[in-house]
Amino acid sequence: MKTVLTIIKKEFARFFKDTRLLITALILPGLLIFALYNIMGTIMQNAEDKEAEKACTVYIADIPDSLEQSFLLSFSLKADFNDETARAAVKDGSLDLYMAFPKNFDEAVKDYDVSSGQPAPNVQIYYNSAKPKSFEAYSLATALLSRYEQTLVNKFDINADLNGVYDLADVQNVSRTVLSTVVPMVLLMLLFSGCMAVAPESIAGEKERGTIATLLVTPVKRSVVAVGKIAALSVIALLSGLSSALGMLLSLPKLAGSAGGGITFSMYGFGDYAAILGVILSTVLILVAVISIVSAFAKSVKEANGLVVPIMILVMLCGVFSMFAGAVASIGLYFIPVFNSALVISTVLSGTVSVAGIAVTICVNVAFAALLVLVLTRMFNSEKIMFNR
Amino acid sequence: MEEILQVKNLKKTFKLSRKQRKLEGGAATKKAVDDLSFTAYKGEIFGLLGPNGAGKTTTLRMLATLIKPDGGDAVIDGKSIVSDPYGVRSKIGFLTSELKLEDFFTPNYLYGYFSRLYNVPEDVAAERKKKMFESFGIDKFAEVKVANLSTGMKQKLSIVISLVNDPDFIIFDEPTNGLDVLTAKTVTDYLAELRANGKTVILSTHIFSLIEKLCDRVGVIIDGRLVALDTLANLTAEKNLEDKFFDLYKSVKEER
Ligand SMILES: Nc1ncnc2c1ncn2[C@@H]1O[C@H](COP(=O)(O)OP(=O)(O)OP(=O)(O)O)[C@@H](O)[C@H]1O
Ligand SMILES: [Mg+2]
Fold it and tell me: Which end of chain B has the lower number of beta carbons within 10 A, N or C?
């Protein structure tokens, strides 16, 4: 036990006294994510603002009274065109849309008898599908017109009261659903990169530099070395993951803009956070152990980083699949390490978590991590693996 | 004389990589140590003499339990390297160029760290460190990171670290490698001092003068096999060690 502490302390000393490592593993990830997300948020917001500022420009010939109001609301209406100049303007993009109504459209529509077999009054809409803005105007105009057409033969309405609230999901629930699909994947990735920042360096690096051999000739048990390394690396990986998470959380308001207003931390209770924390801890143990095992196999840090890629993809897939499995997951799925973590986090965030799921997840993960420690111990005992340079 | 090390029929064969196989003439394996047996007595300096690639380092790595023999066994102070490697590790000090110290740490830190790994009590370790750092001249560099130490200083630090547990049985592979005459003398003097304190030292080298200066008994290995084993006095009775070695080498090669 004392020896485990000695090894943990040495790993900490190696890490925390090395400014370069501290910066690259602890400060940089959070800072980068914060900066990146802020820039993304700013760009997205600017783009939105610009779009919103400019309504589509439309020239309407012989605009009917019945439609004038709704078109005025939706478009910026232009005058000073005739049929020819309007088409040319749409073609060269200076005008977004040109609509030509038949004269006396309203009366023509009223008088028109569907069963007469005569051609119906025809509205011509000229647009330019190569220009996004023009296409947008076209879609909007056709939508407005078909809605108008429906009101002419009105038998019943759907959600006609514009001020009524029909979507009964409360804002929190929507935010919860959004969070529960995105967060597990992002969280797993952050944790994984945290582990990647330290484990290959500490195992493959020590092997590559021949310093682990010095440890292996001491009477320290291989299992103690394995436990000490994994415990210390897990703490550091957690801190690194925390740094990334902090960067993400702090930039969330900017990234989500006004739409993110519904996301608050008070949506979840103490139990939710405790569950997430427990699951994260057990997951980091597994990730560190797996990466350590791969690193012990590798001859160098570089090789370790390469070998880890397939595992990283697997972990990412766990995050992706948890989005779909979410609420319908049977308890059996909670027996799959790492995937179960994504499931628990997802269900906690969406408010559909089951206590059994959490319990199974933590137990399975801890047991699996213990198994991996055993594997690592065996590897430390194998001269073929430890001295395969 | 009390036997402290019995080596019995020690064998080690390495698998060769595909490329290496071609160079070795198609053989898939290399017998690095081939049926080696010898005994060392308490309080002596035993020298393993042999040319490059003879199997000296491989033998010592097996004695230090870093690698396992394919056959045979060795017993150090009652502990078998095969069945009780942990017991062996706590009794010995091992030095070889393969064992590196972490560049990032200082001699002070590393001495404390390895003392704790060997469960040496704090006060004993502090006292031992002071004495050792002084006699090897490390005291002035105690707070310099290993990365910034000179090659000789690194080797001296490795020696000091290999002895943190004050072992009774010391295994040194080429202890004076890369050292200038002054530093080499510090090391050989220290080895003699260890013997004077009743410790047993087994060292490997291809340097004849080191053997002549230090060793009580010598084993000569060529191609993984022990070709001579005697006291230094007996080996050098007729001619000097170098000539004796050439004779041995020639007769071995003629046998093949
Ligand atoms: N891991 C290994 N894989 C394959 N061959 C090896 C391995 N280790 C050593 N050998 C081979 O075994 C033989 C003995 O090597 P060893 O290092 O024991 O020699 P040595 O006597 O210490 O030589 P030197 O004086 O050059 O240090 C050499 O031919 C070496 O190439
Ligand atoms: Mg050697």
Answer: C
Structure tokens at A226: 């394995």
Report the candidate in A357, A355, A367, A363 with the shortest Cα–Cα distance to residue A331: A357
For residue B10, the Cα-to-chain-centroid distance in whole angstroms is 16
Of B21, B36, B56, B98, which is best to mutate to test ligand 1, by the most ligand atoms within 8 angstroms of its C-beta? B56
3-class SS letters over chain A: CHHHHHHHHHHHHHHHCCHHHHHHHHHHHHHHHHHHHHHHHHHHHHHHHHHHHCCCEEEEECCCHHHHHHHHHHCEEECCCCHHHHHHHHHHCCCCEEEECCCCHHHHHHHCCHHHCCCCCCCEEECCCCCHHHHHHHHHHHHHHHHHHHHHCCCCCCCCCCCCCCCCCCHHHHHHHHHHHHHHHHHHHHHHHHHHHHHHHHHHHHHHHCHHHHHHCCCCCHHHHHHHHHHHHHHHHHHHHHHHHHHHHHHHHHHHHHHHHHCCHHHCCHHHHHHHHHHHHHHHHHHHHHHHHHHHHCCCHHHHHHHHHHHHHHHHHHHHHHHHHHHHCCHHHHHCCCHHHHHHHHHHHHCCCCHHHHHHHHHHHHHHHHHHHHHHHHHHHCHHHHCCC
Give me the residues paired with residue A57 across strands.
Answer: A76
Of the ligands numbered here, which is closest to the C-alpha atom of B223?
A: 1
Q: Sort out which chain B residues have CB atoms less than 8 A from A210's CB and list them.
A: 98-100
Q: Domain locations in chain A? A: 2-44+170-386, 54-152
Q: Does A106 touch chain B (CB under 8 A)?
A: no
pLDDT at residue B21 tops 80: no
Q: What residue of B is the nearest CA neighbor of A213?
A: B99
Q: Per residue in B91-150, pLDDT tens?
A: 999 999 999 999 999 999 999 999 999 999 999 999 999 999 999 999 999 999 999 999
Whether residues B100 and A2 touch (CB distance < 8 A) is answered with: no
The answer to whether the Cβ–Cβ distance between A14 and B118 falls below 8 Å is: no
Enter the ipTM. Answer: 0.92
B154 shares contact with chain A (CB less than 8 Å): no
In CATH, which of 1.10.10, 3.40.190, 3.30.1890, 1.25.40 is domain A54-152? Answer: 3.40.190
C-alpha span between B3 and B158 (Å, rounded):
28
- pLDDT digit string (tens) for B230-251? 999 898 888 888 888 898 898 8
Q: What is the pLDDT of residue A389?
A: 65
Q: Tell me if chain B has a CB within 8 Å of the CB of A18.
A: yes
Tell me, in angstroms, the distance from the centre of ligand 2 to residue B168's CA.
23
Distance B178 CA to ligand 2 centre (A): 13
CB of B225 shorter than 6 A to ligand 1: no
Closest Cα in chain B to A208 = B100
Residues B80, B82, B86, B90, Cα dihedral to 10°: 40
pLDDT higher than threshold 80 for residue B72? yes
Nearest CA in chain A to B86: A219
Distances (CA, A) of B42 to B6, B191, B200, B253: 11, 14, 5, 34
Query: What 8-state DSSP symbol labels residue A23?
Result: I
Nearest CA to ligand 1 atom 24: B52
CB contact under 8 A, B86 and A221: yes
B98 vs A: CB within 8 A: yes
Instruction: Please compute the mean of the pLDDT values over residues B145-171 and round it to a whole number.
Output: 95
pTM over 0.90: no
